[in-house]
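>> Question from a student workshop board

For tomorrow's exercise we were told to take the sequence and the ligand below, predict the bound structure, and bring the output to class. My setup keeps failing. Could a helper post the expected result so I can at least see what it should look like? The ligand is FE2/S2 (inorganic) cluster.
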Amino acid sequence: MASDFRRLVQDSREMTRRSFLAMAGWAGFTVASLIALFQSVKFIQPNATYEDPPAFKADAPSAYPVGSTTVIIDKRVVINRDPNGFYAISLICTHLGCTPRYFQDVTSDLIAAGTAISKDPDTGQEATKANPALPGFKCPCHGSRYFRDADNFFGPAPRPMDRVHVELAKDGKLFIDRSIVVDHHYRLKV
Ligand code: FES
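>> Workshop helper replied:
Here is what the output should look like for this input. Compare the format with yours to find the bug.
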């Protein structure tokens, strides 16, 4: 009788141990499966990009007087309005990609130092001793300079800054797409 009881107790202990090992095994399997599933989903899904979209809306044309230069520094874009229309410049230095800054005078120090400055090929403007100050852009990285219309005239920049697409949106605001480079003669007439 006593030996039957002992065997019963032993059997029940054996069952408990087996159940525990089985549960631990299933738990381990479940965790491993979940980790594998998570890694697979992460691999399949592309990483999200948080880059600024290339196209954006600016203000209505009336916000830009004729002759104005408006720098939108967070978009790295300049909106110029001339008597014959609007054009937009991508404010990225063509040397190594820094962001040039706009100044009312980017030429008179060079003229004072005796540096010859070529004419702006698009506007025909020229800085001279009699009229030394022309507006434009200076790059803070290696000193390239550009006329107001983005033509380079000094420093290591190999070419003008790009002009980018500008059009009138349906709501009457300017719509600029930095991903579309346009010809230097492009103008939006409003
Ligand atoms: S990046 Fe502008 S001059 Fe070098």
